[in-house]
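A.,

Following up on our hallway conversation. Structure tokens first:
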């Protein structure tokens, strides 16, 4: 059993050995020296970005890798971790790390308007691997409904697709964005649409050609919460 190992160094050494990677190969994949990888397996400190990259490489929960299993009431607690099938072996990292929170619509406004340093304790739910470069407030959101579905088109978002949303990207014409239709007062009023700017006017557009009122004006009370930078879709 993997969880018999008491330290980060022992867990890392076990995973590397099980995968068949040499220290040099592990170091090359993470972009560090072999000496740095050797130190990790001998009690050396690992920074947060490398921790997330190691977790993604070995497809394990990062909290387990660092701290070991969490026991509650005599049972091992199931980790909040999801590794995206098809993502690169080592997802690209930014200062914010590899993983982003998977939010419910009710949590989006609170997440995007928070102040101060981001910590992994801020969101107790599931974190998912984001394979694209992203800002520190990026989050994942599940698409609900078919208003943005346009089957047969190059750009289409179906019910159940996971989108990655970055609040730090400038909302320009042609981007898909998530916005609050009633300002920041109603947490459940979060909408996903394409932004269109024409003749100095701004509109929201549904990609589904059959959707009622497919185009509507951007109102002053609308608050853009972030721009979609990518999506992940399950196998059909």
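Then the amino acids I'd put at each of the 236 positions:
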């Amino acid at each position: 059993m993997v969880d018999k190992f008491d330290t980060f160094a022992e867990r890392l050494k076990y995973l590397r050995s099980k995968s068949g990677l040499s220290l040099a190969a592990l170091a090359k994949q993470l972009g560090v020296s072999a000496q740095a990888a050797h130190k990790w397996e001998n009690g050396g400190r690992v920074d947060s970005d490398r921790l997330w990259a190691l977790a993604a490489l070995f497809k394990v929960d990062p909290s387990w890798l660092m701290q070991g299993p969490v026991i509650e009431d005599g049972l091992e607690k199931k980790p909040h971790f999801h590794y995206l099938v098809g993502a690169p072996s080592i997802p690209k990292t930014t200062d914010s790390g590899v993983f982003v929170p998977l939010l419910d619509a009710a949590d989006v406004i609170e997440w995007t308007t928070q102040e101060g340093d981001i910590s992994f304790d801020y969101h107790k739910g599931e974190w998912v691997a984001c394979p694209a470069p992203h800002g520190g407030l990026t989050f994942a959101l599940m698409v609900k409904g078919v208003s943005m579905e346009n089957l047969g088109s190059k750009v289409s978002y179906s019910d159940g697709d996971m989108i990655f949303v970055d609040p730090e990207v400038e909302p320009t014409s042609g981007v898909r964005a998530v916005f609050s239709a009633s300002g920041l007062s109603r947490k459940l009023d979060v909408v996903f649409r394409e932004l269109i700017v024409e003749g100095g006017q701004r509109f929201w557009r549904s990609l589904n050609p059959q959707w009622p009122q497919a185009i509507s004006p951007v109102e002053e009370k609308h608050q853009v919460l972030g721009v979609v930078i990518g999506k992940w879709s399950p196998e059909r």
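Residues 99-232 form a domain with the Umud Fragment, subunit A fold (CATH 2.10.109.10). Curious whether your intuition agrees with the design.

B.
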